[in-house]
Amino acid sequence: MFFVVALIILWVIHGYVAWRVVPTFGLPSSYSILAYSFIFILSILPIVPILLRVSGSEAKIIDRLSLLGYTSLGFFTLSFLIFLAKDIFIQAISIFDGLINGAQAVDESKRDFLKGSLSIGLLGITGTASTYGYYSARSGPKVLHQDIFLEFLPDEFENFTIAQISDLHVGSTIKRPYVEKVLSMIGHLNPDLIAVTGDLVDGSVAYLREDVEPLKNMIANYGTYFVTGNHEYYSGVDQWLDETSRLGMTNLINENRIISKEGQQIAIAGITDFRAHQIKPEHISDPKKAIDSVSDNMIKIMLAHQPNSIHAVHDAGVDLQLSGHTHGGQFWPLTYPTKLANAYLAGYYDHFGTQIYVNRGTGYWGPPLRIGVPSEITVFRLKKKVL
Predict the structure, then answer these.
(1) CB neighbour class for 5 (10 Å; exposed up to 12, middle 13-18, buried from 19)
(2) Domain with CATH 3.60.21.10 in the chain
(3) pTM for the complete prediction?
(4) In which residue ranges of the chain is pLDDT below 70?
(5) CA 330 to chain centre
(6) What CATH architecture does domain 142-384 belong to?
(7) Which residues sit opposite 201 in a β-bridge?
């Protein structure tokens, strides 16, 4: 059902753009058929590599097809949204003008010329935007800094730093060079602790082991901690938990670790993905279990892939939740539907006293496209709140 729905959406997006663009070039029938056929091939290209991976096929040629398919999908998605907005606007103006001025004779040739020129101009805009978005996505994350003020933070943890990466999505289009760049950036930051909040990979351990291998050098004095995202469950969660452990990360499966510094302590806890139980029932997300052994007066920091976990995390009495999952919408205007589907979209929020930060993603998923929503590595500095 997922693939059927996905194909219908892809055909609507590509078909609408083709319908609006191809006729404007005035091509002979044979060339028009070729153009429509080429766009049809592009429409199914994003789904074919997914079907192959689901069937157990992983190879470099599939990765190249994925990059081509996802890149064209980004361009067609932007084009679809812009052409749809243009058509709605023109239709609204036409209806309004008809109500005010009544029916008037229209020079059809002039109108068709203007519509064709506008379509070509809009195609140029989407092409430029797609090129910029591609460069932004593929050039790597930015480092963002966020101070977190905690009322009962022990003095010994003043200016304690946590680097968060999330949604790296090592897979068909994000490979070892990108991972090495992220590792280098974290190395220069030299944080006290590293938090990896899920969706690290898209694919099997066997195929991606070499690409994630650099992460064995992602080391911090107080440890590197990992929680599962939804994509780990699509990729073989048990195998990936073994792999992240081999890479030196501490997996937090509804559990915690106590961080001690100069005799004082805080707790770092982690829960499984918000919907993990739908694939692995015993991995049902349980914030209360994750901090059950932690004393009430200790600072509690929860790693939770999806921001929608905030309600249960708040009820459990946690001070700070670090999340990802949303990618911040990844590119405008998909920020709007993404915001509707999630409790919080991107950045810092206060949820009735429980602070939450939503990382915009250190990589990207699907179209290599970042417009107005940069990928990020977040560095948190813990500060004592002065009343």
Answers:
(1) exposed
(2) 142-384
(3) 0.90
(4) 96-116
(5) 6
(6) 4-Layer Sandwich (3.60)
(7) 170
